[in-house]
Amino acid sequence: MRIRVRTSRTTRRFRALLAATALLVSGGTLAVSAPASASGHPTLDSSRFRGVNWADPRDNYADDPVVPSGLSTSDSYATVKAKATAILTGFRTNLGADTVRLPVNPHSVGTGWWNAYSGAVDAATGMGFKVVLGYWEGPSHKDGKVDDVSAWKSMWNTVTAKYGSNRLVYFEPMNEPFGYSASAWADTAAGWLGDHPGVPRDRVFVSGTGYNDNVTSVCADSRLDGTYLSLHHYGFWGTHTYDEWVEDLRSRIGGCAGRTVLDEFGAPMTTGLRYDDAAGTDNFVRYLRADTDTLRSLGMGSVYWPGLRNGDTYSMEALHGSGTSLSLTTNNSSGADRLRHGWSLTSAGGADRPRARG
Q1: Which end of the chain is more exposed for a tag (fewer CB within 10 A), N or C?
Q2: What is the CATH number of domain 43-342?
Q3: 49 within 8 A of 264, measured Cβ to Cβ
């Protein structure tokens, strides 16, 4: 039974004052954590993330600054922000996205490029987008481990100092940590949390083990409680029936759907595949339909790979224009429909919303 209790106006004002003092304000942005659960950690809801990756043409693996498609290291902060605004507008208009995942590395953050590149983050948060900043190692190592621990820590200190109080910015300590054993990766992730106690746990994405391909072990580690988990899943990993793809994805999630974001998954979008064909026998069609159906049924968020990456057949969007006059078109409308289906932006049949352009 719910009991209604009257409070005086003075009491209500006092409570409001207490709530107001709990807000951290930085540059006009309120840093508000999600409500706490019984465990004391924020209540997590992965369905909040409907996103795409905006990637460097080099697959985000670089021994110099990462530069997402459409940007240039010669761009100023204002130019990056203007370009990013145009590209993010395309993601929102064409797909319904509200989240973008961007790469960082020490070469990006420890150089002058960071001053300009931050314009992309600022443009996104200014538009209400959630931003996931994830670390990629360099291609000269490519061993699934942090290249230089000291430089990595310095990078994250810089990034969290700038965006730690911005409630729309999330931090992913490492992409695809396949060089670590499950226990060693959990130790590394727990160490990152210990190094950044001021970052709310519900703004951290802890990668799954291996190629981000399983979250069950990090989910079970109590040291990582309160964080989101990031999972990757790709159709080129095998050839399966629709039902087998569903089971494959579910086995990698276990009972952790509520805190898991599928922040990389994708399929060819420039080869003419029809993802609206429920009877399709192509492996990628079966895979993408299985993944998006599973995301929808589990209420999970996702970040497609990639929303934009020049030269990538998986790219959902194509870039047009020059300078700051940029626009996007969708490479495969049926693929975009499946993405929106997974985000529950359409009816089960996917016919109640306008189709993505392209």
Answers
A1: N
A2: 3.20.20.80
A3: no
